[in-house]
Design goal:
Layout (H helix, E strand, L loop, with lengths): L1 E5 L9 H5 L4 E6 L12 H13 L3 E6 L5 H5 L4 H17 L4 E4 L11 E5 L5 E5 L1 H5 L17 H10 L5 H22 L2 E4 L18 H10 L5 E6 H6 L5 H10 L3 E6 L2 E4 L3 E4 L11 H10 L5 E4 L17 H18 L3
Parallel strand pairs: 1-2, 1-12, 2-3, 3-4, 4-7, 7-8, 8-9, 9-12
Antiparallel strand pairs: 5-6, 6-11, 10-11
Helix pairs in contact: 4-7, 10-11, 11-12
């Protein structure tokens, strides 16, 4: 296992020197942010990023993420050009020593929350999702965390209308087409693709979501069995779907050697489908964090891990979910769980 930390590049308020001081930290998970979506990442930008990380004594072996353009998800005619660009970027990343690319295939919106700073009794605050609140919103008249704010309201409306002709089966077919287009480059470059589950794992505003649980993940691996087609196992995303047995799924996909990257975060359920992100300990939420880690280790997992999302604590007001203090505490806690599991305790 390699413990890593999400870092948003040179504009991140958290310096690499601080990340290096977290016990057990081997590298950062990052991306290039100065290339337009759908374009080929420049070798110069990748090299500059890698040098900054390596100079801090850390590795840059995981990229999160190379965004998949909406044209690919929709299956537009121009998707082939974007897929070629994506494949070219993978080759550049492989040449720079990247081993894994985390990506998602969520239409229009990435992760969604209804509150960026829900207060907790201890004085901390964190990201939260309230399904009842979400149900009252009109996506054409509001904006929420996780939305691509580069769209004008008019463009967003047009995009949402275009997706009305895309159901789960068509979206799944477009995902398979995308993977088959880029996997030869992955083989050449030695890069694993690791798809991130949808967050939360159910349809939003009528938009289909497919990487939501065991049925669709199994379908993906059956349809595209290539060894470079893998999973980012996100406990918070899969765990929000209360029918997902996250401990069992961790063991199942680790045994298949399909988990290349693990996002480990804790959530606490409320209402029918609400959840709030909490501290990482099992006692702090609804997920069995030790059970998850033990299932990973017992079934041969040896990939990358990062403490996923953190609360705002000790007065920190950083990027929502991505402050330093609580994620550093989470890394220390997770390191302890892994050490215990590896020793059979």
């Amino acid at each position: 296992m390699k413990m890593t930390f999400r870092w948003f590049g040179e504009s991140d308020s958290i310096p690499l020197s601080y990340i290096k001081q977290i016990p057990g930290m081997t590298g950062v998970v990052t991306a290039v942010y100065d290339c337009p979506p759908g374009s080929v990442w420049s070798e110069k930008s990748v090299a500059r990023l890698k040098k900054a990380v390596n100079d801090a004594g850390l590795e840059m072996e995981v990229i999160e993420s190379v965004p998949v353009p909406e044209a690919v998800k929709l299956g537009r005619p121009e998707r082939d050009e974007y897929i070629q660009n994506y494949a070219a970027t993978i080759k550049i990343l492989g040449a720079a020593g990247v081993k894994c690319v985390c990506y998602n295939f969520m239409p229009v919106f990435d992760w969604l929350r209804t509150d960026l700073s829900k207060p907790a009794p201890d004085g901390s605050d964190s990201l939260s999702f309230d399904g009842e609140h979400m149900a009252r919103l009109d996506p054409k008249k509001t904006a929420l965390p996780g939305w691509d704010l580069s769209y004008t309201p008019e463009k967003l409306g047009e995009l949402l209308d275009e997706y009305k002709s895309v159901d789960k089966e068509k979206l799944f077919g477009n995902l398979v087409y995308f993977l088959r287009g880029i996997l030869p480059a992955c083989e050449e470059a030695g890069v694993d693709m690791a798809i991130h589950p949808d967050d939360p794992p159910w349809d939003i505003f009528g938009l289909p979501r497919i990487i939501t649980g065991e049925e669709w993940i199994d379908r993906l691996f059956s349809e595209v069995p290539d060894r470079h087609n893998n999973l980012t196992f996100c406990t918070g995303s899969l765990g929000a779907g209360r029918s997902n047995d996250v401990v069992r799924l961790a063991g199942k996909y680790a045994a298949q050697n399909r988990i290349k990257f693990a996002h480990l975060r804790q959530i606490k359920f409320f209402g029918d489908d609400g959840f709030t992100e909490t501290g990482h300990r099992t006692a702090d939420g609804s997920l069995d964090m030790y059970g998850i880690v033990k299932a990973l280790i017992d079934n041969g997992f040896d990939g990358y891990v990062r403490p996923d999302h953190g609360r705002n604590i000790w007065g920190e007001r950083g990027k929502p979910g991505y402050g330093l203090y609580d994620r550093a505490l989470g890394a220390a806690y997770l390191n302890g769980l892994f050490e215990a599991a590896e020793h059979g305790n």
